Each structure stands twice: as structure tokens, then as C-alpha cells.
Amino acid sequence: MTTDGDVAISPYEMLASSEGAALLSALEGFDEEHATAAAQRARSLAPPDLARAALATSFARRRAEASGKFEHPRTMLFTRAGYEQATSDAVARHRASRFAGLDVVADLCCGIGSDSIALARRTRRVDAYDLDADVLACAAGNARAAGLEGKVRLTLADAARAPLVGASAAFADPSRRRGSDRVRDAAEYSPPLASLLARARELPESRLCVKVAPGIDLSDPSIKVALGDAALEAEFISERGTCKEAVLWCGAFARDDGARRATAIDSDGAHVFDGDRSVAATVSTLLACVGEPDPALIRAGLIGAFCSARNRHVLDRRVAYLTTDMMDRTHDPFVRWYRVCDVLAFGVKRIREYLRERDIGRLVVKTRAFPLKPDEIVALLKPRGPNQATLIATTIQEKKTAIICDPLPRAT
User: Fold this and answer.
1) Contact 377, 365 (CB under 8 A)
2) DSSP label at residue 175
3) Whether residues 220 and 367 fall in one domain
4) Which of 13, 70, 360, 394 shows the greatest Cβ crowding within 10 Å of its Cβ?
5) What is the average pLDDT across 384-402?
6) Is a pLDDT exceeding 90 seen at residue 29?
7) Alpha-carbon gap, residue 225 to 194, rounded angstroms
8) DSSP label at residue 190
9) DSSP code for 352
10) Are residues 225 and 352 in the same domain?
11) SS3 label, residue 119
């Protein structure tokens, strides 16, 4: 690892030693519910900085194992923030596939190195940069554990000024947090989004990819100003039903200027849908099945194109619930389908009686375009009984509506 100047050795570099491995082993029996006891144990065995690094890594490894975010978390090093902000292995792998065959890729704001590692597996070399010595030390340890130490070159440097000479393309993942709070305004990213996008001008054919928040305002004029004439495609990515990020593909990476893509990642891999945002969905009355679209599809603005391509319909143009009567075609990675049992005008007394008559006590409530939250609805309905059902509370054609349904099994 190289630096832009003299810096203190990160405790994470020491954590990668045999002494650090022994310390991590000593903490394996502790979880975050017993953080005080874990801290006492760590401080009895190591200096404060090394103890803090070991605790952060040990707790993050436990969370990673429970979440499935990383394939080999027991060999990885983490800062607390680094774990939370890092790209999962599945998403990093999907994104890196678009870099396949390139020579040298610059990874700006590399964090603990999850994207660097995925990129290194698809390219000749990755030049990775970050301003945080601790996460850079984690990235070095993680690249070494992945057997890619020789393919990831790490440098302590500012992403806004890191050299791009010789790079075939670049990837950037700016920090979108201020302390524990998430930042919504792209101008407050660190570095600011516009300053990163402007670096596309320094790259061959403007090949730049920037990870952003899924709520990004793509109409922000500063984006176009920063990119100049370079094309821009936006991809919205969900993993296990949650859309946590979007990606801006610039220059030669973009399929077309203004293109949109929705990607859903599940246990079967990455599923991609490309479409035209100008296509409108047809509206239908409620049919045999009601569908909850993947949030990546909604964020990408591709509900209409999806419905047109798959012969689906919407219940209301302003509410993202789909419907179909084709029970044999309900397997779809972009939609969670439910069999409709009943539909009622929403009313607490009416629905409470309905549930009581059917002994429905285990109730999953979903809401969209509705004034009450799921837990508020459950508190009002007070369901009791051994049976279960799903209640979708929504607004259809200006009418508050309750759809009683059962989840359909996902086809294999």
C-alpha cells in the first residue's frame, strides 16, 4: 500500500498479523449483545486501537454471516462504517461483469475493497484509492485473503485527485453519509457527485461508473453539465427485494443516453430488465392475482414497459400494484405475486369482522398510497386466530381498498 504522505500505521494492518488473528479468535464467542464484556476482553489482550479494530471486525463478521452479504466473511477485515457501506459480493460481481476484459481500472473511494476484488477478477489490475487509512488497510487484507494482492494496488489518496493516466475505466463509490446520517443531496456526497462525474472526461471514451443512492434526482442539471456530451445510463439494483443503490454508467459504458435498467438479484443470480420509460401500462380491474413489483423496477420508472412486455396490468397508474389472471405464469423475479381471496372497501369494522369469521390472527399487512402504516392497521384490526393471510391496503381509483390474499409459491 502506498500513500500521498507520511501517515500512522493503521491498527488494521496489525490486525492482519498472527497477533491480530489470535485476538480475533479470542473474540469469536462474543456478539454485540455482550459488547461490554467483549471490549473488556479485547482491551485485556491488546492496545486500545487494536482492540477497537478487532471488535469492529469481529462484530461485522457476525453480521455478514447472518446476512449473507459476503461469501467468506470470516477471512475479511472491517471497520464498522466500512461494513455498512460496502457493496455485497453479489452486487459487486454483477457490476464488475460490465468491466470484463478491460486492462486497468481505477477504483475511487474503494472502502474495504469489495468492488476492487470483484473488478480485479474481471480485469488485469485495479488501482484503488481511499482517504481513510483504516479502510484501505482492510482492503489490503481482504485482497490478500482473496488471493488478489498482486492485482489490487492500493493508494491513500483523494478520489477527486487520484491519477487516471493509464486507466481504461474508473469506478467510484462516494460516501453518502455524514456521521450516522444518510446524505440525500448528491452535492453533499464525499466527494460531490458532480466532481466525480467530471472525471469521465479524463478517461478513454468517458468510461466511468458511479454508485449513487437509489433516490438520485436524474433531472439535476449539474449531472449533465459535469458529463458534457458523454452518454448516461442509470441502473437501479435491488438485492433480496430491497433497492439500496443505483449506478450511473457513463460514456461508452452506457447502452444509450438516457437508458434505464432494473436489476433484481436473488439466490438465482442477477435478473435484468431494460425498457422504455415512455411506455404506459394498461389499467385493469383486479384479476386473479395481485403483484408487488420489485423496487428496482419502480425506481427505474419501467413499470409500463414491464407490463407491456409481460402482459401485465396496473390497478392504478399512480400506485405500483400489478394484476394478472394467468395463474400459470406467476414466477417472476421482478414481482411478488399473491392469489386474491377477497377485495373489500377499507373499513376497520368490516375487515375486523371478516378476519374474525375466518379465524385469521397471523396477518401480514402491506401498504402503498395509504394513510396508515402496517403496524397501525394491525393495532386497529386486533386479529386473533390460528389462520394467516396477507392484507394489502391501498388506493385504487381514489377508493381506499383492502385486498385479502395469499402469497403464491415461487416457481422453480
Assistant:
1) yes
2) B
3) no
4) 70
5) 96
6) no
7) 8
8) B
9) H
10) no
11) helix
Q: How far is CA 64 from CA 15, 173, 264, 360, 372, in A?
A: 18, 20, 20, 36, 33
Domain count, the chain: 3
Enclosing domain of residue 359? 289-293+315-407
Instruction: Print burial letters for 91-113: b (CB count within 10 Å at least 16), e (below 16).
Output: bbbbbbebbeebebbbbbbbbbb
Look at residue 4 and tell me whether its pLDDT is greater than 50: no
The residue-averaged pLDDT of 94-106 equals 97
Q: Residues 365, 397: one domain?
A: yes
From CA 60, how far away is CA 27, in angstroms rounded? 12
Q: How far apart are the first and last CA of the chain?
A: 46
Q: How many whole angstroms separate alpha carbon 162 and alpha carbon 128?
A: 9
How far, in Å, CA of 109 to CA of 128, rounded? Answer: 7
Inside any domain, residue 96: yes
Closest CA to 270 of 97, 67, 36: 97
- Residue 3 has a pLDDT of 44
Judged against a pLDDT cut of 60, whether residue 9 lies above it is answered with: yes
Q: Which residue type is seen at 178?
A: R
pTM of the model: 0.92
Classify residue 205: in a domain, yes or no.
yes
Q: At residue 376, what are phi and psi to the nearest 5 degrees?
A: -70, -40
Instruction: Return the amino acid letter for 132.
Output: D
Q: Is the pLDDT of residue 103 over 70?
A: yes
CB count within 10 Å of CB 124 equals 12
Does residue 299 lie in a domain region? no
Torsions phi, psi for 146 (to 5 deg):
-85, 0
295-354 pLDDT, tens digit each? 999 999 999 999 999 999 999 999 999 999 876 555 689 999 999 999 999 999 999 999
The grid coordinates listed for 164 are: 487516471
3-state secondary structure of 29: coil
Residues 6+ apart with CB under 8 A from 400: 345, 346, 370, 393, 394
CA angle 291, 296, 301 (to 5 degrees): 85
Length of the chain: 412
CA–CA distance, 252 with 49 (Å, rounded to integer): 44
CB 107 within 8 A of CB 116: yes
Burial string for 269-290 (b: 16+ CB within 10 Å, else e) reads ebbebbbeeeeebeeeebbebb
- Report the pLDDT value the prediction gives residue 332, as an integer from 0 to 100: 83
CA atoms within 13 A on the CB side of 34: 12
Please report the pLDDT score of residue 331 as a whole number: 65
Of 108, 199, 130, 119, the closest CA to residue 152 belongs to 119
- What span, in angstroms and rounded, lies between the C-alpha atoms of 26 and 247? 40
